[in-house]
Write a structure and sequence with these properties.
Elements lengths: L7 H21 L5 E5 L14 H7 L4 H6 L3 E8 L5 E8 L4 H15 L6 H7 L1
Antiparallel strand pairs: 1-3, 2-3
């Protein structure tokens, strides 16, 4: 229903911008197997602390380009902040390289060795 209010010229402009994003990511991927970067540009915040659209825009800044381009991406937990909020980084692969991305992520996960089980649950399992 909402789509009926999108003007054709706006839709075409969005498709052109999407194409530029895809081309930029493809250029960045030209000589590498994966891109590695922080999942979030800031420490994770509690859902209750998300103040509005400005916070949401900041929180998706590192993941949104790949949502738009269709490049496969995965986030791996690598630790926590001093406050106990999770820290993760994402790996991004070339289009249609999902299997390769998962293989690399599994390898990296083994190297990092971070146990993402919450401490409360970890204590209960002992």
């Amino acid at each position: 229903m909402a789509g009926q209010y999108v003007l054709a010229q706006d839709y075409i402009r969005a498709l052109r911008v999407r194409r530029l994003i895809i081309e930029a990511i493809n250029a960045a991927m030209a000589d590498v197997d994966v891109l590695a970067m922080p999942t979030l540009p800031v420490p994770a915040v509690r859902i209750a602390d998300v103040a509005g659209p400005e916070t949401t825009i900041i929180m998706v800044r590192n993941t949104q380009p790949f949502n738009q381009s269709g490049h496969p991406a995965i986030t791996l937990p690598v630790g926590t902040t001093a406050e106990g909020t999770p820290i993760g980084f994402q790996l991004v692969a070339d289009a249609f390289a999902d299997y390769e991305l998962l293989s690399i992520a599994e390898l990296v996960e083994g190297i990092v060795g971070f146990d993402p089980t919450p401490p409360v649950l970890r204590d209960a399992l002992v």
